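Hey,

The postdoc asked me to send both predictions to you directly instead of through the lab channel. I've kept everything plain text so nothing gets mangled by the mail client. Protein one:
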Amino acid sequence: MRPTFTLLIHARGRPDLETLAATLASLRFTLTRDDVECLALADGGDARIAALLRAEPGIGRVLVPARPCGVIAARTALLERARGRFAVLITTPARFTDSAWLDRLARALAHEDTGMAGPCGARIDYGWQSFTPVTAGRCDVLTGGPWAIRRDALQSGATLDPLDLGEDGRVLWPDAEQALRVRELGYAVRCTGHIGASDVRPDAPEAAAWAALRARWAGRGLVRAEEAPHPWPADIPRSPREEAGNAGITPTRTGVGTRPASSASASSASASSPLSTVLRGEGSGVRPVVKEYTRWRERA
């Protein structure tokens, strides 16, 4: 008989063993359920991680690769072995404080069009110019775990192939990549909001992660392509990037603009540093574009 849920634990690198032990302890009640099975993968070659996972009676199988395999390869190995109707990825340092957390994920996946659900989500706005956190409902990407994915989506090819991702399969924002892959197959992704787990925080991307995600997915029609509204409301100051753009000036890391030598060099500069100063908030008076747009939405 197939279980309803397959819990997947990827213990990678050299995590704090006390943190991993606390996550496992908070899962013990869930692991006693008849409709749950659990698989784990001890990545990074640390024998202590494998020993800790094997000592947990609720974990049915522990995979120990011969060498570190990376986030995407490890998750793919676990997802391909999941037998349950829903595969649930557990991320540390989550601690589960409510025994009903798994049922909350299942309710989000009860919608037949939903292929993936988790507590942390975001909407990508204005043709990949910014992203806005979502507290509940449909979203473009998930930004942290634990999340659940429907078996039907896995059978349709929702797992990520490291060889197709470029740069040796190196992925800087894997939860968002997985959500976009599920949406590419025609499924919706939903944010559940709080599910009864502490220490769960959304993963905000660095500039390099955002640029890599946009480069891979921007041309596939998964995100609305509308432009940012102009003019901005009078009570919200424009960032130096906005002001420089209106004057035909390319902003630098210090916030001081320089006019491009040619249109070719301008396009090259734009492609080589997408949102780097804006996302990180570097430079004189530059604020993250996420906060700019979030404030605009709140006032609108």
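Protein two:
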Amino acid sequence: MKRLIITTAFIFIALSLLAKQPKSDSYNNRGFAWGIDIGSSIDISSNGMSSIDADAFFGYKNKFINIIGIGAAVHQSLGNNNTLIPVYLIFRTNFRTRPSLCFFDLRGGYSFNSLESKQTQDGLFGSVGIGFNLYSSSKFNSHIILSYNYSDLKSYTIDDKVRNLKDLQSMSIRIGIRF
């Protein structure tokens, strides 16, 4: 686990040092936008649900708003058969009309969860993070995001045994691209 955290931190620092400042024309376009993020989440709530994550989203962009729209993700837990499928609203901005290296990423919605032994649950999903632009052009933008994630989980019973789950809280790192 320590090796994963150290490796993730090293990659993040290396990518931050290599980050290219966005060009001024990269934020002049507005209209339809879409993108994808891939990454990993580390469970900090002791549920054993660290995961590999894939997100896709689409919406509207302009000078102030990097994207506002809807998205969906698949968070597949490592080491067990738990899968979370959040569907969310996404809002991403740097709070400026000029280019910026950093941005704010907010996601909120509902998660459809498939847990071990064919148990299903659903509940609220939320994510708040800070992102760093790696490269920007008039056609696309690549980025890395560090975020805190929350998913509503409840305890359940399997064969007369109670599986105590706490709400899932995790820290994630994602790398992505937006067109």
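Summary for protein two, as requested: The chain has one domain: 2-178.

Thanks,
C.
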